[in-house]
Write a structure and sequence with these properties.
By secondary structure, the chain is mostly beta strands. The protein has one domain. The chain has one helix spanning 46-52; strands at residues 8-11, 21-26, 30-35, 41-45, 53-58. A hairpin with a 5-residue loop joins strand 3 (30-35) and strand 4 (41-45). The relative contact order is 0.32.
Length: 62
């Protein structure tokens, strides 16, 4: 699965604020995701993040 910085991901589980769309701000062993609903940043292991991705919405192209 090809995931890049600035991709927007639809996750299987939603954030407590109700949004399930996250923007990728850092990749590596962990993914740093920012919730599109409330702006909360989370750091999640790559394996867990890749398992919970429903689909990739778009890439900003930066």
């Amino acid at each position: 699965m090809e995931i890049n910085v600035n991709d927007r991901l639809v996750m299987k589980k939603s954030h407590p604020c109700g949004s399930n769309i996250f923007k990728v701000t850092r990749i590596g062993m962990d993914f740093k995701l920012v919730c599109e609903g409330c702006g909360h940043e989370i750091l999640i292991p790559r394996s867990k993040a890749e398992k919970n991705i429903k689909k990739i919405l778009e890439t900003d192209g930066e």
